[in-house]
Amino acid sequence: MIRSHLRSAFIFLSLGALLFVSACSGQGGADAGKPIKIGLLASTTGALESYGKQTVNGFQLGLEYATQGKKEINGRKIEVIVEDTETKADVAVKKATKLLEEDEVDILVGSSSSADTLAVLPLAQEYRKVMIVEPAVADSITGSDWNRYIFRTARSSSQDAVAGAAAIAKPGVKIATFAPDYAFGRDGVSAFKKAAEKRGAKVIHEEYADPKATDFTANLQKIVNAKPDYLFVIWAGANTPWNQIHDMKLAERGIKISTGVPDIAALKTMQPLVGMEGFTVYYHTLPKNKVNDWLVSEHKKRFHSPPDLFTPGGMAAAIAAVEALKKTGGDSTADKLISAMEGMSFETPKGKMTFRKEDHQALQTLYAVRLQKGTDYPAPELIRELSPDETAPPIQNKKK
């Protein structure tokens, strides 16, 4: 009899232990207590160095903001491993493979270059890891080269195009475009052309330059010869064409300039463009919300400067990752994250973003602006906010 009671007690305790383990497994399972590793790919050297550093700073600040300084979810610490792609696609693949195989990261984030990012996208699918794309913009990332593991907090070329066209495209207006000759530039021009012609304008000339060029004289002369009403410029990197555009006196030849307003370093070369109307992804004085207020305040404290063009994108990517992990209870497996992230809305320095279910592109606010004279450089003045619905790009992927 005593043995029977002891056996029943043992079974009861064993069942209790199993239930306890089962309950714990619902909050991270075998991974409970293990760190959540995020691999951040960025150009921290090379032509897009400033963009990469902005993204890294924004991402670290975003983790801090979204976790109230704890940098953990359900007892799992968040570790960030930064790798420099050097703005070279082959290096990006090598670094991403290292993050996935050696570091065993749970989530990938990046990168600064569209070419780097496109090279890495297949790895996300191969290793079944969610990748949050920031700040690369090529349409093909959430279009022809997309897979179900890809989410993008960065805006796309098509979102830029809608905003750029809203600033200058009208019936009868003739436009020339100028862009670097790679995915970022060509996707940008293709999207802008569609958006501008939808508004009745006509793109009469497309000019592409070597992304590493420093002399654009021949390119700009072809644009002058085409005699457009506007020149719409798409550019990224330190080798900007603004000084040569000024030296060749395009404005005096009756050609108005329009562009997406770049980072602060490039703004310092744009004194001749005061009065220009265009659009911007972000400028620190434009958004009016508590997330941006926190970002501006903290960035000034830590870096003695305001956040720049790609800082809020890095922050948005971090907030998206944290909000998704909160929804999964700290479970970092791809299927759980994808289910949580599809259709998910989250607050960022640019206001609310939403991952569209169909292609995982974040719908977001952009800004129609006019460059006004500033103390150190021309500063964007808000004309109006372009809402997430207004700038929503066409769905270009075949869901897979």
From TrEMBL:
Residues of the Leucine-binding protein domain: 35-374
Signal sequence, start to end: 1-23
Matches recorded under Pfam families: Peripla_BP_6 (PF13458)
Transmembrane residue ranges: none
Similarity comment: Belongs to the leucine-binding protein family.
Chain intervals for the UniProt region annotation (Disordered): 378-400
Protein name as catalogued: Branched-chain amino acid transport system substrate-binding protein
CDD domains: PBP1_SBP-like (cd06328)
Entry keywords, A to Z: Signal
Organism: Thermoflavimicrobium dichotomicum
Keyword check for Signal: yes
PROSITE patterns: PROKAR_LIPOPROTEIN
Domain of life of the source: Bacteria
